[in-house]
Amino acid sequence: MTEPKAMAYVNLYGVLGSLENLCELDAEAKTILKELKKPVSLCFDVKDGPCRTFHFTSEGCKVTEGSAGCGCKMNFASPEAFNRMIDSGKPGMPVKGIVTLLAFLTGPFTKLTDRLAAVLRPTEEALADRAFFEENTLMTMYVIAGAISGLANSDSIAMISAGNTADGDISLGIKDKAEITIRVENHRFTTIKAKTEHPRALMEFADIDLANGLFNGKVSTISEMCKGNIRLAGVLSMVDNVNRILDRVSVYLA
To answer: Quick one: which of 26, 61, 154, 244 could link to 161 by a disulfide (CB 3.0–4.6 Å)?
Structure first.
């Protein structure tokens, strides 16, 4: 079972949160951004749920917490209302920068989200291209990483694991490809899409192919750990709790 509020966090922190990575990694997304004549800062504010602002320029996208600095804003009456935007494209209530907001939503933003969907839910034919295969794997990792913190702070089951996780940085990554930090402070999780200098725990996959297989359930985590293809170090209870939250992530992203 999923919870509407937690799903809103997964959608905003995991799925839409990966737009900043798409704009960095994907050639088509970079081309779409070139359409922007001026920067657009769009806030999604969900009542009794998350609130984040997406800052788009012709050079990329950055996401910040809250509504500070937004030029456009869309309010949602509930987590369910926000989830309907993700599932069926039903928008919320524009409350700021309406003209710019509508033009952006019907233009570059829709193109970016369509491209995001194509990358995250690709055809087998698309995956045959090695460069696209690697991009899909990295993007999936960024979605999962954002969803981990979103669920750790909002899902009733994931919060049990979060409540048992010690403070500190957990390093998650793919060897020689990407590193992500899950920061834990007073049992609240924050995903930082950068390397941590002082990890208390570490989980690293040996290569892109292994990571892809794990993300898609095609290989056994236990088997790969026994083979030494998944490197674990530090306070292993922290990694264990993250793995429990990952079980919830798979339910929400199914």
So the answer is: 244
Name the pairing type of β-strands 72-76 and 51-57: unpaired
Q: Where are the beta strands (DSSP E) in the chain?
A: 40-46, 51-57, 60-65, 72-76, 93-96, 168-174, 178-185, 188-192, 199-205, 230-234
Handedness of CA 206, 209, 215, 218 (dihedral sign): negative
Beta strands 40-46; 72-76: pairing state: parallel
Under 8 Å between Cβ of 230 and 153:
no
Q: pTM for the whole thing?
A: 0.95
Model confidence pLDDT, tens digit, residues 19-65: 999 999 999 999 999 999 899 999 999 999 999 999 999 999 999 99
DSSP state letters, 38-96: S-EEEEEEETTS-EEEEEEETTEEEEEESSTT-SEEEEESSHHHHHHHHHH----EEEE
| Amino acid in the structure at residue 199 | P
Q: Spell out the residues 6+ positions from residue 215 whose beta carbon is closer than 8 angstroms to its own.
A: 137, 140, 141, 144
